[in-house]
């Protein structure tokens, strides 16, 4: 049996025996839609749906027991910790702080809000990159608010300072964006920034793909860090799937046909027809032709009898 197809339908909840039986009948090269139709025709149901239909017997748990209910687990999650399924987070500290400070003040509180948001979701690996010169006392041309937050995040091993030094009174600053993209790429994580890093995209084709697919934009709404629900657009993954190593596939929903019995699409109709579950779905025109053929044959038989 084709392992990828078997794995796909097992994830949807169908039993291995049913899948193997259908693939033997239809052949290994059968389309996924055809296999799914055959499974439904056989009356095979996903195990997740069967468990919902049959109420499970109540379990008595001893007092003081801390055992978690199986319902609290994610779909497809094994015994390991849920944080293993979440992607590492790399935050562009300068971009987030300036965005929260309305591009006028380097607001360290904005960085704290972003870190807290990912912590609450359960992400264990969170790194914030900020240039080292932000550690210096603030100047009039570059004001900093709540600078003590940087010290606290550094103590927690979340904040990383990118190197900088002074040569003959001039500050030499390393390019912090390169650190951000490089670490996120190596960790197979997510970059949190509203910057598009166009210069780094042109520099490395692998980075270009990574920045396009793993850049998480955000907004601050009344001191609330808010990433979009659809980070890659309307037709892309949800925010939960975007931040997960193992995205959860949506279960197929069988939507009934809005035209019902008046539908003229026949077996080409993509919607569910409860009135014809086990027979080949014919179009109305084909059904009429079949009926006229039957009536004509009956008429001929009667004429022959009369003669």
Provide an overview of this structure.
The chain has helices at 3-11, 16-26, 32-41, 47-53, 93-100, 108-121, 148-155, 176-187, 198-203, 205-214, 239-242, 284-306, and strands at residues 89-92, 106-107, 126-131, 144-145, 159-162, 164-167, 170-173, 190-192, 215-216, 219-220, 225-226. The radius of gyration is 30 Å and the shape is elongated. Helices cover 40% and strands 11% of the residues. The protein has a five-stranded parallel sheet, sandwiched between helices. A two-stranded parallel sheet has the order 2-4. Strands 6-7 form a two-stranded antiparallel sheet. Helix 2 packs across helix 3 (32-41) and helix 5 packs across helix 6 (108-121). With 307 residues, the protein is an alpha/beta fold. Strand 6 (164-167) and strand 7 form a beta hairpin. It contains twelve helices and eleven strands.
What is the topological layout?
Blueprint: H1 3-11, H2 16-26, H3 32-41, H4 47-53, E1 89-92, H5 93-100, E2 106-107, H6 108-121, E3 126-131, E4 144-145, H7 148-155, E5 159-162, E6 164-167, E7 170-173, H8 176-187, E8 190-192, H9 198-203, H10 205-214, E9 215-216, E10 219-220, E11 225-226, H11 239-242, H12 284-306
Parallel strand pairs: 1-3, 1-8, 2-4, 3-5, 8-9
Antiparallel strand pairs: 6-7, 10-11
Report a brief summary of the structure:
With about 300 residues, this protein is of the alpha/beta class.
């Amino acid at each position: 049996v084709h392992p990828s197809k078997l794995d796909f339908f097992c994830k949807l909840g169908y039993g291995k025996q049913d899948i193997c039986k259908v693939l033997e009948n239809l052949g290994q090269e059968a389309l996924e839609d055809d296999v799914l139709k055959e499974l439904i025709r056989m009356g095979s149901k996903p195990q997740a749906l069967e468990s919902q239909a049959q109420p499970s017997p109540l379990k008595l748990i001893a007092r003081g027991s801390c055992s978690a209910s199986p319902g609290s687990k994610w779909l497809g999650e094994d015994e390991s910790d849920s944080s293993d399924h979440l992607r590492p987070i790399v935050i562009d500290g300068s971009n987030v702080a300036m965005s929260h400070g309305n591009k006028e003040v380097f607001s360290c509180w904005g960085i704290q809000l972003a870190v807290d948001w990912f912590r609450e979701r359960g992400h264990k690996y969170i790194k914030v990159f900020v240039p080292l010169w932000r550690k210096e006392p603030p100047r009039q041309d570059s004001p900093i608010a709540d600078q003590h937050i940087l010290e606290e995040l550094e103590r927690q091993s979340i904040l990383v300072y990118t190197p900088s030094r002074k040569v003959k009174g001039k500050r030499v600053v390393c390019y912090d964006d390169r650190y951000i993209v490089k670490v996120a790429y190596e960790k197979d994580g997510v970059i949190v920034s509203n910057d598009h890093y166009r210069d780094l995209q042109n520099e490395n084709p692998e980075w270009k793909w990574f920045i396009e697919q793993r850049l998480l934009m955000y907004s601050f709404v009344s001191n609330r860090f808010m990433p979009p629900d659809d980070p890659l657009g309307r037709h892309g993954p949800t925010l939960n799937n975007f931040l997960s190593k193992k995205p959860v596939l949506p279960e197929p929903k069988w939507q009934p046909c809005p035209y019902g019995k008046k539908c003229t699409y026949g077996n080409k109709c993509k919607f569910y027809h409860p009135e014809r579950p086990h027979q080949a779905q014919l179009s109305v025109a084909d059904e009429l032709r079949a009926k006229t053929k039957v009536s004509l044959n009956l008429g001929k038989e009667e004429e022959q009898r009369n003669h």
